[in-house]
Amino acid sequence: MMRTSTVSRLGAGLLAFSLPLVALAKPVMGEVEKQPLNLHAIGMFFVFVLLTLGITYWAASRTKTTADFYTAGGGITGFQNGLAIAGDYMSAATLLGLTAMMYMQGIDAYIYMIAFFVGWPIILFLMAERLRNLGKFTFADITSYRLNQGKVRTMAAISSLTVVCFYLVAQMVGAGQLIKLLFGLDYTVALFVVGALMMVYVTFGGMVATTWVQIIKACMLLIGGTTVMLLAFSQFGFSFDELTTRAMEIHKLGTRLLAPGSLLADPVTAISLGVGLMFGTAGLPHILMRFFTVTDAKEARKSVLYASGIVAYFFNVIAIMGLCAIIIVGTDPAYFEGGEIGGKVIGGGNMIAMHLAQAVGGNLLLGFLSAVAFATILAVVAGLALAGAAAISHDIYSRVIMKGKATQAAELRVSKFATIGLGIVAVLLGIVFEKMNVAFMVALAFGVAASANFPVLIMSMYWRGLTTRGALAGGYLGLFSAVAFVVLSKSVWVDVLGFASPIFPYTQPALFSMPLAFLATIIVSKLDNSAEAKKEIEAFEDQYVRAQTGVGAETAAAH
Hints:
The protein is mainly alpha-helical. It has one domain: Sodium/glucose cotransporter. The chain is built from 24 helices and 2 strands. Strands 1-2 form a two-stranded antiparallel ribbon. It is globular. The chain starts with 5 loop residues before the first helix and ends in a 10-residue tail after the last helix. The model is unreliable at 1-33, 336-348 and 552-559 (pLDDT under 50).
């Protein structure tokens, strides 16, 4: 078992939740070696690609308007959307990273799963209905509903693009390393494959294709993970008591395998991580967009309920997988650090789920799970690209530059160019960051979402006193403080820039940057006595009626 500092382990915890296989990037766990061709994985990967390209071809005939492109015309059912949202959460990090964390750290991994899951009640009870009733294509529609359209949309688009770009780069690095490890392809080739497929899905199929790719991927992940879990758990007679007893007997942690604390020894960083995961989830632009794809607020609530149930089930599946792997795979240090076992180079801790699949189901199950892991990254990348394209075309081009006068055809054209541009940028940045520790990108993505997006979004829904100046102060302060705290933390200041010690002592910014954003929003709004501010406060009643019923006048404060 690797002995690392508390901060390092907490940083690894964030990776396991948020970054598919980012631990495969060099400073995290060492250079990943190319493997011989995995023919089962490649065959299943091509089946998935052909299936999703067929869906894209079908979706292209249904994507004629901006509503079709951004929100699938609002025609997705609650169950379908719930599967798609669950697919966004059940990433390769969930399957691979959390299984590995359970394998290495025991019950603390389950605590992290719960921390990640706590964001769901916030979305269900506070946001889902109002998102659907107030929004059209992006969450900036809501934050700017009664405020200054140009200024607030610009701020929301900047923070959204920051989250999307850093998350995209992290996904691309993970995808490149995964293909390099499992399929034997060069890293750069792998990036171009992911980028090209993502651009095809989004450019031609829009939200219809992206949603169905996500649904198919979610089903494949549920089937693959459940199959591995059942085959492994059956070796212990489906007895959780026998499983945990035997695992504690051979694991280095012993009885502490089921005792919390090894990852949460620093309470400040632990709480900050939890805050970021909870509220960052409710501020991720590609997640928020999904609430505009359903027909009404009732279906939006159903989406969250279905997604919650699916994600909760899958978290338990991978928890059992991690415990089973302790006994079935073994506890050789090479599984944690990467190295050779039986003359074969393995991928270290994050590949434990793959080793378990091969142990219980042979190369066929290994190939299926490998293809599913890569399909997962493709689906998430497509959703991120669509959210980024919407911020550029709908918020910046249509509403800020053209001031609402752009035609649907022009906006749609800009969306597709934006998607291609984002794809190219993601590939190029993936190449640049191939051998760099990109953990800070994930911290930044969740930190910005929790600090810049969530405070302004939730207060625009519920606080009548919010003004444009307050929203801008809170949004920009949340954005820049989250970035500054991450840059000054060990993740960047020491690991990337090479300084001896960090200026900011914690690795997670949300506990500090999110309260700053709320305070700035409230204080500046309270101090704003302008005529514009008074109109914005009065316009809250119109927004409140619309939020409750979905029926009401259009934006009352049209500036």
